[in-house]
Prior knowledge:
There is one protein chain. Strand 1, helix 1 and strand 2 form a beta-alpha-beta unit. This protein is 24% helix and 29% strand. It is built from 4 helices and 9 strands, in the order E-H-E-H-E-E-H-E-E-E-H-E-E. The chain binds S-adenosylmethionine. S-adenosylmethionine (SAM) binds at residues 14-15, 17-21, 35-38, 41, 59-61, 77-79, 90-91, 110.
Amino acid sequence: MERFTRPGDAVLDPFTGLGTTFFAAQATGRVPWGVEANAQRHAWVTARTPFAAHLVHGDSANVRTFGFPAMDFCLTSPPYMPQHHAWNPLRNGDPAHAGYDAYLRGMQQIFRAVRAVMRPGATVVVQADNLVGEGALSTLVWDLGLALSDVMALEGEIVVTWSDDGAAEPFTQCLVFRVA
Ligand SMILES: C[S@@+](CC[C@H](N)C(=O)[O-])C[C@H]1O[C@@H](n2cnc3c(N)ncnc32)[C@H](O)[C@@H]1O
């Protein structure tokens, strides 16, 4: 947050979840904005912030329609999908089990909408992990990097190592994009 923004900047998380970005923006004097598809998570965050009106319960593919101001920065962690799963986790889950390609296309659609509400030249950071498990490696970070490069310019990658030695995952990855 402090590396990419200044106090007063508008910070968007289109997958707000339990609000890590939302609360970090609030705590550092930035102005949080967000979208969350899950009603319980939306209610949990809005009950704990004076910026409740800035968090929409809905689909971030529709973010252009929510009346948000131009955003200075986006920092988000999308729902993860292993590439061998059929169930697409976007929008509370896809009952058609449309698979990994549909997930990546859905992510492109959402980030095209996000791009439209960003200030020109703004940075978008997408945090994700490559997934090891169930006898398979899912190259989620790199697949998202490639898919979202159709939408925004990929400028680089930041590896974040966790200070807690007991963490299940010793590090995570942040893809850094810039919108034109
Ligand atoms: C990995 S979690 C976000 C974690 C978040 N950083 C936190 O602090 O909890 C992804 C979130 O995206 C939400 N989500 C999935 N599809 C969505 C969509 N189309 N629009 C908005 N939120 C969505 C899920 O409900 C979930 O809460």
